[in-house]
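Justification of computing resources. Each target in the renewal requires a structure prediction run like the one illustrated here; the chain below, 121 residues long, is used simply to show the kind of job we budget for.
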Amino acid sequence: MPKYLLVARDDGRWQTASGEMSPAQMQEMLQTYGAWGERVAKQGRLKGGEKLRDGQGKVLRGGNSGLSVTDGPFVESKEVIGGFWILEAPGYADVEKLVSDHPHLNFGSLEIREIEDMGRA
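Resulting C-alpha cells:
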C-alpha cells in the first residue's frame, strides 16, 4: 500500500483568536495532536512521525563553488515546517479524508506527498 508524507506547515506562531496560548491551552492542543495520532495508529495507517525542533535547522546547497551551509530551516520563507507523519493509504483521497480533522489545520496547512517506492524491501 502506498505511503504518504504529511508535512505540518505554519508561520511559527501558535495563537488562538484571543492571542498567544496559555500553558493550559498549549497542553490541551498537544493532547488533541496525541489523540489524533493514536486514532490513526489504531487504524494501522500511522507509520511514523515527529515534531521538529522549533527555530533550528540548516539548509545545504551545492554547486560549482562547493557546499554552502546556512541556518534554516528556510530563511527566505515565512512558513516553517513543524513536523511530519508517515501515513499508509490506498490513495490521495483516502489521506485527505484521514487528515480532514487533523488539529494542525487550526494553525496552519498540511502538505501531502506520496513517497515513491524505490524498490527497497
